[in-house]
Amino acid sequence: MSSAVAMEATRRRQRLSSNWGASETTEEPAGQWGRAWEVDWFSLSAVILLLCTAPFLVFFFVMVCDQYQCSVSQPLVELYSGEATLRSIWDKAPSFTWTAAQIYTVWVSFQVVLYMCVPDITHKFLPGYAGGVQDGARTPAGLINKYEINGLQSWLITHALWYANAQYFHWFSPTIIFDNWIPLLWCTNILGYAVSTFAFVKAYLFPTNPEDCKFTGNVFYNYMMGIEFNPRIGKWFDFKLFFNGRPGIVAWTLINLSYAAKQQELYGYVTNSMILVNVLQAIYVLDFFWNEAWYLKTIDICHDHFGWYLGWGDCVWLPFLYTLQGLYLVYNPVQLSTAHAAAVLLLGLVGYYVFRSTNHQKDLFRRTDGKCSIWGNKPTFIECAYRSGDGGLHHSKLMTSGFWGVARHLNYTGDLMGSLAYCAACGFGHIHPYFYIVYMTILLVHRCVRDEHRCSSKYGKDWKRYTDAVPYRLLPGIF
Ligand code: NDP
């Protein structure tokens, strides 16, 4: 069945490519868009490198806190001098425990129940919140999927229970996450690999939307970047929406709270740096859930297929590496001067403002089809056309005013400012917490390139008109 699906998809692609060969005007849009069909050697090498190194990188950043008080250089110096060996470091790391497995099983099951069995009611009483059943963006094959948006509700219930436990019930210690951190790493890896492998096999045996599957012919690339676009179980269990949002992002704020509780337990106080990290990251997380319907229109859902990159990334990379600042502060409790704390807060809030306003402007512009006000004026835009995989001709608009007229990805710039603020909250004692800003810079610059490649394939000459009108990506006048 899978090869028939793949062949049909390839035939359709060839048919469409030949139809679109000469088409690069507004009337006749560009060729096939969406994830690559052919893999170049550079992408393949990057994929294999990531598959081989990413799990060790996560282990390294967590292990150095456990064994070296978050010094990144100390283990390398010890390995070089022979004082430590890979084996001795490995032997000192806590191993898998059944307690951690139970905690993680309860956690993931609880999130599945909240996702699948508790339809959203918050949109009925929260003004301006778009929850409940929402449409996703048009897929390359021309489908529009429906999603049950109830992430904010799940976040609220989970955190209310966490609070009730900490204040009244005392079923478990609020430090539970920190206390089981490395054993939990093994459990998250098991789920991350299981989900990615299941999605890979499912794409061959029973894909949800065969028309939106992409087989590149390279098994590593397929495993990592995914084959199915929107794998689902049943009508509603959407892998992308669930794994990114629920075990990953709902956990983010709980993990930070657990770190704060650990600081309190160890030192008898919580530092202002820890409070800053908790507050700034909580704003980002809450923003994500408040705008979960908007997330349906982002690259994760509109472009990426579901493979190891998203499956393992959401289960392991996100909860462990996005929370490095809090982990660092447990081992190195930094109390910032008032001026330093104020500067971090300002940077974080300005970054958040740029990030949210930019995203909001695009969302408003697209939702109203340009019939809105941006910075007090009617927005300017470029009309464009594109074709979906079913051959349908569609029209779209690229805004050239507001933040989208200043640079093509100012939402990424704002995100980077916020990320730098989290790191700067940890002071300048170690480079460990700064890994996050390095990673986010690589991720978002690479995302610029990927997104622009996709848009150029989708819109052809219309995209070129947009890049002529708005020539810079992240920093006007520089990049
Ligand atoms: P965007 O939200 O910027 O979406 C890009 C898409 O928007 C393009 O593919 C195009 O899609 C459309 N578009 C581009 N230019 C215009 C324009 N001028 N007018 C109207 N529409 C336009 O990108 P992402 O999905 O990557 O990011 C969403 C947010 O998530 C960002 O703020 C980013 O910082 C954040 N993010 C955070 C991550 C994290 O790990 N913390 C990871 C990734 C993202 P179309 O086909 O519809 O035209």
TrEMBL record:
<dbReference type="GO" id="GO:0006695">
    <property type="term" value="P:cholesterol biosynthetic process"/>
</dbReference>
<keyword id="KW-0256">Endoplasmic reticulum</keyword>
<keyword id="KW-0560">Oxidoreductase</keyword>
<keyword id="KW-0444">Lipid biosynthesis</keyword>
<feature type="transmembrane region" description="Helical">
    <location>
        <begin position="266"/>
        <end position="286"/>
    </location>
</feature>
<keyword id="KW-0756">Sterol biosynthesis</keyword>
<keyword id="KW-0443">Lipid metabolism</keyword>
<keyword id="KW-0521">NADP</keyword>
<dbReference type="GO" id="GO:0005789">
    <property type="term" value="C:endoplasmic reticulum membrane"/>
</dbReference>
<keyword id="KW-0753">Steroid metabolism</keyword>
<dbReference type="InterPro" id="IPR001171">
    <property type="entry name" value="ERG24_DHCR-like"/>
</dbReference>
<comment type="similarity">
    <text>Belongs to the ERG4/ERG24 family.</text>
</comment>
<feature type="region of interest" description="Disordered">
    <location>
        <begin position="1"/>
        <end position="27"/>
    </location>
</feature>
<protein>
    <recommendedName>
        <fullName>7-dehydrocholesterol reductase</fullName>
        <ecNumber>1.3.1.21</ecNumber>
    </recommendedName>
</protein>
<keyword id="KW-1207">Sterol metabolism</keyword>
<keyword id="KW-0752">Steroid biosynthesis</keyword>
<dbReference type="GO" id="GO:0016132">
    <property type="term" value="P:brassinosteroid biosynthetic process"/>
</dbReference>
<feature type="transmembrane region" description="Helical">
    <location>
        <begin position="306"/>
        <end position="324"/>
    </location>
</feature>
<dbReference type="InterPro" id="IPR018083">
    <property type="entry name" value="Sterol_reductase_CS"/>
</dbReference>
<comment type="function">
    <text>Catalyzes the last step of the cholesterol synthesis pathway, which transforms cholesta-5,7-dien-3beta-ol (7-dehydrocholesterol,7-DHC) into cholesterol by reducing the C7-C8 double bond of its sterol core. Can also metabolize cholesta-5,7,24-trien-3beta-ol (7-dehydrodemosterol, 7-DHD) to desmosterol, which is then metabolized by the Delta(24)-sterol reductase (DHCR24) to cholesterol.</text>
</comment>
<feature type="transmembrane region" description="Helical">
    <location>
        <begin position="336"/>
        <end position="355"/>
    </location>
</feature>
<feature type="transmembrane region" description="Helical">
    <location>
        <begin position="419"/>
        <end position="445"/>
    </location>
</feature>
<dbReference type="Pfam" id="PF01222">
    <property type="entry name" value="ERG4_ERG24"/>
</dbReference>
<dbReference type="GO" id="GO:0047598">
    <property type="term" value="F:7-dehydrocholesterol reductase activity"/>
</dbReference>
<keyword id="KW-0812">Transmembrane</keyword>
<keyword id="KW-1133">Transmembrane helix</keyword>
<keyword id="KW-0153">Cholesterol metabolism</keyword>
<feature type="transmembrane region" description="Helical">
    <location>
        <begin position="41"/>
        <end position="64"/>
    </location>
</feature>
<keyword id="KW-0472">Membrane</keyword>
<keyword id="KW-0152">Cholesterol biosynthesis</keyword>
<comment type="pathway">
    <text>Steroid biosynthesis; cholesterol biosynthesis.</text>
</comment>
